[in-house]
Write a structure and sequence with these properties.
Blueprint (H helix, E strand, L loop, with lengths): L6 E6 L5 H12 L2 E4 H14 L11 H7 L5 E5 L6 E5 L2 E2 L7 H11 L2 H14 L5 E5 L2 H5 L5 E6 L2 H14 L6 H17 L12 E4 L5 H16 L1
Parallel strand pairs: 1-6, 1-7, 2-6, 7-8
Antiparallel strand pairs: 3-4, 4-5
Bound molecules: 2'-deoxycytidine-5'-monophosphate.
Length: 231
Amino acid sequence: MKIPNIIIAIDGHSSTGKSSFAKIIAGRFGLIYVDTGALYRGVTLFAIRNFFIDKNNKIDRISLEKALSKLDLQFRPTGQDRASQLYMNDELVENEIRSLEVSEKVSFIASLPIVRDYVDTILVKLGEKRGVVMDGRDIGTVVFPDAELKIFMTADAEVRAARRYNEMKAKGENPQFEDVLRNVKERDFLDENRDTAPLKRAPDAILLDNSKMTIEDQIVWFDNIISKRWN
Ligand code: DC
């Protein structure tokens, strides 16, 4: 199946499997995959390292804003499976941006308009030739409101918490299910209620609730949409 040179915007709640889904789609249709959350994570790592955010998540906005002009975030291909990794001022930071400390602070950094402008500038450039699949929270609403295909992914909070719980267990961690569930609900609240670019479904986004779907089911669902629109 072939599709035109389009932008596919995939937004939705955390732990809905957006990135796995987006990567498979990108691979199948020869599009570039952009993990927009990685850029917010990159800015957060930069803020932590430069002491612009403290242990109580208090942010020195003025210093952060000044320093952003010295921050260079780039995705570079790994040479395998169309995957890419994030570099911060030429340093590979793909593992560091997934740390617990960054995960706990990223919602606060991502709520700042100056940070959103910084990331949006990078995203608009990456999408200027189209041919991309971007996953995030505001791609179809703010960054590319003209995206040709928009998907909004969600799943029951309990299902998402169970997925994260199993992932953490597989990594050798020993979480309590109730804590993981609380964290999933807290992140939903922060994403949906921030003033700038909150998470919401664009009116023209197609809803994908994958609470009871495997990844294979989701790809079949997606192929159906593509063949209805472009075949
Ligand atoms: O998708 P993720 O968990 O890696 O995203 C990290 C954080 O960045 C999360 O708190 C939501 C935020 N984010 C955002 O506000 N807008 C985006 N387009 C992508 C991510």
